From TrEMBL:
It is found in: Endomembrane system. The chain crosses the membrane at residues 6-27, 39-63, 98-117, 145-173. The keyword Cell inner membrane does not apply. Pfam families: PEMT. It is a multi-pass membrane protein. It comes from the Bacteria. GO terms for cellular component: endomembrane system. This is Isoprenylcysteine carboxyl methyltransferase (ICMT) family protein. InterPro entries: Phopholipid_MeTrfase. Keywords: Membrane, Transmembrane, Transmembrane helix. It comes from Mycolicibacterium chlorophenolicum. One of its GO terms (molecular function) is transferase activity.
């Protein structure tokens, strides 16, 4: 190894457990669907931190193939920030635009999960459909995990995580559809009206500037 940033398996374990616990503290899974969503996120973390601190498989594979084209691609911890290597960023990788954008995406993802869970809990207590807060923008803010994953991909993309991400998007989309079928059966036209005006995952720009209605309604 060119430096001591890899082979740190205790750090792989600690970081995986830390971010998994962080996700649990925001998400509060209750149903089987919630736990499957949490499991998919945790699998992504394992793949990510294994390459970040354990074995830099992506750097080895791409370094042997593209090393002459991207000399910054090397088996050091700084050399594992592939977007930086791709554009030739030579400064501190933790201060690159990609890394700074990743902090915003990760923070926004966790905020979305926490804010959505709070509105969902309030609506659940009243046995109504959640449509306020983040639920006024998207139907599934609880899957802010996707935004967290995008943040990690901005700072440390790897071949396994880039392959996993579209698979996890598909998994979350299936989970979301299953939730929607259950809620549609329970709330009927009320759900249909809400779903017709509210996108599933990506908010409309105008909805982000619109003041949400004060009525609070449940998703389960």
């Amino acid at each position: 190894m060119a430096d001591a940033a890899y082979g740190l398996w205790p750090l792989v374990i600690v970081n995986t457990l830390l971010f998994a616990a962080f996700g649990l503290s925001f998400f509060h899974p209750r149903t089987n669907r919630d736990w499957r969503a949490m499991g998919a996120y945790t699998a992504f973390l394992v793949a990510l931190f294994t390459e970040m601190y354990g074995i830099p498989l992506t750097v080895y594979l791409l370094g042997s193939w593209l090393g002459s084209r991207f000399p910054l691609l090397r088996d050091t911890h700084a050399g594992g920030h592939l977007w930086n290597d791709r554009v030739g960023w030579t400064g501190d990788p933790h201060l690159s635009p990609f890394h700074l954008a990743s902090y915003v995406a990760i923070g926004a993802g966790f905020w979305l999960i926490a804010a959505g869970w709070r509105r969902l809990h309030e609506a659940s207590q009243a046995d109504r459909l959640a449509t306020t807060g983040p639920y006024a923008w998207v139907r599934h803010p609880q899957y802010g995990f996707l935004l967290v994953m995008i943040g990690f991909l901005l700072q440390w993309p790897t071949i396994p995580t880039l392959i996993m991400f579209p698979v996890l998007v598909y998994v979350y989309a299936r989970l979301a559809r299953g939730e929607e079928h259950a809620v549609a059966e329970r709330f009927g036209q009320q759900w249909s009206d809400y779903a017709a005006r509210t996108p599933a995952f990506v908010p409309h720009i105008r909805s982000l500037t619109r003041k949400p209605a004060r009525t609070s309604l449940i998703r389960r």
